[in-house]
Structure formats: structure tokens, C-alpha cells
Design a protein that fits this description.
heterodimer, A: 197 residues, Jelly Rolls, 2 domains, 14 strands, B: 222 residues, alpha+beta, Immunoglobulin-like, five-stranded antiparallel β-sheet, three-stranded antiparallel β-sheet, 3 helices, 12 strands, elongated
Chain lengths: 197, 222
Amino acid sequence: MSTVQVGGRAVRTLTALLAVLACLAGVQAATPTEATASIQALARHSTSVTTTSGIWAALPTQLGSAPYVPSALTLTFAVAVTTPRPQYFWVVNTGTVALSKATYTVTETGALGVTATVEACVGGSWDETTDACSGTITTVATSSGGATSSTVVPGSASAQVRLRAKLNGAPAVTAAVVTTSVAVARTDARAATTTDS
Amino acid sequence: MSSHARRAPRGNRRTTLAAAVAIGGLLLTAGGVYAGLNAVATNTSPQAVTSGTLKLTMANNGAGFSQSVSNLAPGDVVNRFVDLTNGGTLDAQNLSLTVADGTPSKLTTDATNGLHVSVLACTTAAWVVNSLTNTATCADVGGPTTVVNNAALATISGTPATLVAGAVAQGATYHYEISLTLPNQSETTTNGTLPSNTIQGLAAALTWTFNELQRTATTTNS
């Protein structure tokens, strides 16, 4: 029996010794070889700087004011025995940067043998009652010409230009559908600038 | 067997108690002996000990960061000017710049098409900024020094850009031009509909933070 008791104390002593050694080893492992604490100083502006990117965009529409629908403009010319009168519409700069040009695409579907032309009255304005132009009538794009770059654009943000679409003949059998699309590439917008302030 | 096992611990406790009493008596006696011998030496005037300060201050030169940047088109460059001063009593080291965006977007997360930053240092004097003529000049012979060259803001927001790699002397002032650029890129907007994943019409809320660390700690023997 006494042998058993002595053996129990020895086990407890050995356990305690191992625990102490383990603690010492843990402390040693957790101690960095070199102190790394240091102070730092920060300087920052008290408020954040709002920074925004611009938008270069334009669209054709028959609406005179926002909100506009961002889509191509479709104009229908009903069946007629004579060439129908032109239809007028706006091209609006819906972006935030100035434009110098844009690419127009005009298509005509529905009436065989008929082509469509989109025109601007440069240097004047349209008399939409008489279809007269007080300036110079300038062709922007035609349905036979494919995508066409034109400098007839609303230059500044929110600006508008008045254009018209006309046919070169009568849609005798079926209605003519003229679709006008306006694309603005980065190179159509103002040039890059450098600001020092 | 069990009665022997119970008596043995009682004997041990008595022995332990006796030993504790004996040790206590020895300690009391020893304390009484050494309490009578004591000597003290102090400095006649208090030793002054102060801790240093580390302060970094930023001042706008011109509009600086007080003015928003709006309507950027690809290729645009906007230069802002700030002066940084290590105004504490300690030397510092490793001056760096990081930028955070409170409203992250492609503008600040796209390392290719998003904003880019350059920093130019004018060593001899502050930049001379004239917003009326839209010019800024540096008096350094040979021109300013580029310390950050067209780094993506998306990168700087995660990894600070180093402005001064070594010591930043106490009292030193650094004159910087912070150049913000939207890289050239091609996007076409058709009938008012912006392309997907566009760079257009985005907004960021940029916080520019300059950071310096204290000089290396020293050990003085004197």
C-alpha cells in the first residue's frame, strides 16, 4: 500500500514539474525577439473629396423635355400616294460632358424602294409648318449610308438640336418605318483636360 | 488496509504544519535583524524626463483637398497641392500615402480603368499654384521629383504608396502635387444607354491619408 502512495506523489510531482516547464516554454515562445511597438502619425483631410466621372451620351426623342426614354427613335410614315411630310424630332445631350460629334444610323424598313434622310437646319431653325429652314439644310445621315459621323450634335449637357426625317418617295403599299440611332464614343466628347488648382 | 491509508496523510499534515511554524519563526527573526540596517542615496535635483511627440500636419496649397473633382472624362488630369509637415519633436520615417473610398465603385476598384494617382515632390519650396492661369510651377532645378508614378488608386487603397522611404526630419515640410487621372479608355453610349460595367457617371468619396512612423528607437549610454 505504501508503495502505491509513494508512486502517486511521484506522479503528481512529475506532472507539476512538466506543467511548470510547459509554461516556461510557452512564455519563451510567445516572447518576440525584438520589440516592434512604435507610434505613428496620420494626416488626412477632415472630409472626403467627392470625385465623379462624366457621361457622354445623346439620344433621339420626340419629347421636348425629360424624362427621356433611352432608345432609338422609330417614326412611321403611313401609306400615301405622294411623298409624306417630314417628321421632326430632337437629339438631346443626356450626358454631362460636351460633345463635338456623334454617329448617326438611319434605317428604313417596310416600304420597298424608299430611302430616308435625317437633316438638320444649321445656322437657323425649322419652320415646321412650311418645312422651311432659315439656315442651311444639312444631311446628317441617310438610310443608304450606314453609320455616319456628324458634327450636328447638342454640344453642351442638356442641349438639344432639332432634326427631321424625310422620305425620298411615297410608301405606296406599306408604311415606312424610319429608325434613327445616335451613338457617342469617348472620342466624340470633349478632349481631355489638365487642371491645376 | 484502508485504515493505514487514512492515517498516513494526517501524519504528513502534522509534519508540514510544524515545518511551516519553524520557517515562520526564522523569517520573523531574520526580519528583526535586517530592519536595523538601511542606507539611501538619491539625486539632489529631480531628473527631468520627457517623451517626444510625433505630429504630421497637412495644409492645402491652393484648393488642395477642399475642392471636389467632378465630371472627369478619360484622359483628364486634376492636380491638387498639399504641404505636409512633421511638426512634432521627434524625427520620423517612412512617409506614405493611402486613399480610401467611402463609396467603392469601378472608379476606385478597377486597377486598369479606374483612377490613377501620381505624386510629384517639390523640394526647395512650395508649388506656385495659379488656378486662374491653370498652372503650377516648382522651383527645383531640373523640375520636381516623381515619387509615385501613375499608381492605380485601387492599389494604393490596399498598399500605401511610399513618399519618403527613409528619415523624415523633425520640422521638415514636404511639398506635393497629387495628380488624379482617369485613364484613357473607349466607351460608346448608344441612344443614351450607358454600356455595361461603365466608368461613366460614377462617384467616389476619397479620403487621402498620409502616414509616418516614429524614428527607430535608440539606446543611450551617457
